[in-house]
Design goal:
homodimer, 214 residues, Rossmann fold, 8 helices, seven-stranded mixed beta sheet, Arc Repressor Mutant, subunit A, DNA-binding, 46% helix, globular
Chain lengths: 214, 214
DNA sequence: AGCCTTTCAGTATTTTTTTATCGATATGAA
DNA sequence: TTCATATCGATAAAAAAATACTGAAAGGCT
């Protein structure tokens, strides 16, 4: 069984996105150096990444067939059969994610929302029904929902996550800036804006220091 | 000049968040093994990370002083003097970020919004004025805004980014799933949900395959 | 007061990831 | 058809990151 590093996995959707643009432009083949010059990775890394998921050999002087690359990546990333997810915590961020237009191209289908606010329960957001958090145990199996998108306030995130796991959730996509204690058989992926911002502001500070010193 | 890897930088906000919880619980000291057991990193890594930003030595049998750790990290991450940012593209996601309650604790102050929609221009969102994208060149310097939070539709992202850079933006926090071509003197940090989702669904698939094989 | 244990700092090792090298080969031009 | 070359695949080298190890010291316990 091949092992993919986190960094490597993160690159595949970026390749795919780019290949779709290339295809849209009418180009049939793309070479590693050409990809490298646009995406900013080294051409060796691109070869390694693509070789890891594809059986097709690239052709000298031409590169790889864009159409096949797209098929391969979409298949590898599981975009062919979308996974079902529900948003828990229909606040500003939850609503934004429910309306996010790109998930359908990313193999994700949000099919429901959950909240504790009586004013929201029973309403619809982006065409999806909002249920009470109490109903998770019933609704998740019913709609075959495996992934919980967690967008509650920080203070109730752990409690809600526990509840979701009891209700059968297999994976949690956590947008809450809190460290959840999760059993090891549950998949968790944290979207930590503070971490992303830390990189940004560190780089920005380096830049400013550089400028000042010149 | 010390160099910090991306992974390492991402961990600091996570440490900080945890230390604040520890402080709130009344605990005065925290040891690396104790941090490790909660956050799931190795204690060696934690020592290395903390030694890289702190001059204070930890004390055998006690660990490090929580209060000092918090000060040190807040200072390192630049939370003491927030950087100013503006959201460009006041759609669902833009609105969500403008309302995001945690940025003020993360050294970021969103002070304005920009959009091209006449219905939005002149309005307020989360107490911040929405300007026309055309006004960026005037408004960014006026409010001393260095960071652009990009949440436009994909198709106009590049164009808007170019405009923001002309208007003096130094850094772009890009929430748009598109690869921007950015001059090397501008800082860019991509929040790529597709990449995050790729990790999640890869792990979920591995889990399911494992289950099936048992 | 002395001993045992925990944790530390610093260094070494291992592992992982990225980058570089090299011969082979298909392509497009002469 | 032949030649020059861009690109490939595979492997090797380098760099970076994570992990493990070691001796020292502080804290608490008897």
């Amino acid at each position: 069984m091949k092992i993919f590093s986190k960094n490597q996995l993160q690159r595949y959707p970026i390749y795919l996105k780019f290949f779709k643009e290339v295809e849209a432009s009418g180009q049939k083949y793309i070479s590693s150096p050409a990809i490298a010059s646009v995406l900013g990775y080294s051409e060796e890394q691109i070869r390694k990444d693509l070789q890891a998921v594809s059986n097709d050999a690239g052709r000298p002087k031409k590169g790889r067939e864009v159409k096949r690359l797209i098929e391969t990546l979409e298949n590898f990333l599981g975009y062919s059969e979308p996974i079902k997810a529900a948003v828990v915590g229909v606040g500003h961020l939850g609503v934004a994610l429910m309306n996010y237009p790109n998930f359908s191209d990313m193999g994700l289908a949000i099919v429901a929302g959950f909240d504790i606010d009586q004013n929201k329960i029973g309403k619809e957001v982006a065409g999806k029904h909002i249920y009470s958090t109490e109903e998770m145990e019933e609704i998740l199996p019913k709609f075959d929902i495996n992934i919980i998108i967690l967008t509650t306030p920080s203070k109730c995130a752990q409690e809600v996550a526990d509840k979701a796991i009891r209700a059968g959730a297999l994976a949690i996509w956590n947008f809450v800036p809190a460290h959840l204690q999760i059993p090891s058989h549950i998949v968790i992926e944290n979207v930590n804006l503070a971490s992303s911002l830390a990189i940004l502001s560190h780089n920005l500070n380096s830049l400013m220091r550089l400028r000042k010193s010149i």
